[in-house]
Amino acid sequence: MKIAIDGYEANVTQRLGSSQVAFELLKSFERLDHDNEYLIYLPNYPMADLPEERPGWKYKILKPKRFWTKVALPLALFFSKQKPDLIFSPTHYIPRISSIKRIATIFDLSFLKFPETFLKNDLWKLKTGTRYSVENADHLITISNSTKRDIFSEYGLKNTQVTVAYPGFNKQIFKPGKNQQVLDKYGIKDSYIIYIGTIQPRKNLIRLMEAVARIDGLQLLLVGKSKGEGKNGWKFEETLETPKRLGIENRVKFTGFVDTEDLPYLLSSALACVQPSLYEGFGIPILEAMACGTPIIASNVSSLPEIVGKAGLLIDPYSVDQLEQAIRTLVTDKKIRERYSKLGLIQSRRFSWNKMAEIILKVFASV
User: Fold this and answer.
1) Is residue 174 domain-resident?
2) How far are the Cα atoms of 191, 206, 207, 225, 331 from residue 239, in angstroms, in the given order?
3) CATH of the domain at 262
4) Which of 320, 338, 322 is nearest to 272 (CA)?
5) 153: part of which helix (H) or strand (E)?
6) pLDDT in tens, 251-307
7) Could you tell me if residue 358 is inside a domain?
8) Do 206 and 237 sit in the same domain of this protein?
9) 236 lies in which domain range?
10) Model pTM?
11) What is the pLDDT of residues 12-42, one digit of tens each?
12) What is the chain's percent helix, strand, coil content, to nearest 5?
């Protein structure tokens, strides 16, 4: 079987969310499957950490980058001398006007649930592109049962097949470990809790800071992009201004993007990892935190309960009181922290990139 893959998202320097999934899937496909032939379409020369070319694994650079799914991919497929049997997109977007089988990946429908938290241009692109994929793809991959239910509910699907494939984490990197030099690098001196993710309204960070403001002496580390290059946050200004409004500027630290190698040490030394999001398609940082033995506090909405299971405290994300109480519980009670640390380590073993890739490979064969 000849399999084409849209590698656009995988070929970037700072991989978060969908780009992280795209990159890890490419590595797993190359590692697991030497029977099928793969052609990975890229907008630029492949980065050094992508799998090397070999018989049955090739890259092809396409132009124009700006009109990737509307022009570059359709033209490449149309003029291909040996047409692929299918094309897999680890994004919401599939190539337009194509006669071959198309498989898309729908990560979440947050843009429909919380449209006011998106920039207008991004919202339009997600709405139109996702609807096209849902209505025209031969199969859909999604990353949680919660998102699968949302897809059926929002789009009223009848014939389209939807398969759930949970993401994984890097087991070589994310494991318990302490490193004082990393803490010194980020100026961490006192007890702290940590959040990892983009800085945007849906992440509910203002309520998190309001809860932290009620707990004397506790530091909050917010790891994620708010501006600059790469995968950025958006509508982040009010979040960045909140510590000053609450009078806790000296207890809240925005780190920006953090090197992956530093994250396990920041997680392992934290009293808790908090994900108070109003909606998540999955939540890879929560998985990475559990793998480091960090106790979890997460919202009781969307996909988070099925990812966390019994390995963390679940709270109503709209309740600052519940957030405060959960944080106080973990910060003050070492036995409870140890209990959730052990449960998190066990829960994290359910997930791996190879498992995700194996499920998708079965979808390729069925399609």
Assistant:
1) no
2) 22, 6, 10, 12, 23
3) 3.40.50.2000
4) 338
5) helix 145-155
6) 999 998 888 899 999 999 999 999 999 999 999 999 999 999 999 999 999 999 999
7) yes
8) yes
9) 180-348
10) 0.91
11) 887 878 899 999 999 999 999 999 999 999 9
12) 40, 15, 40
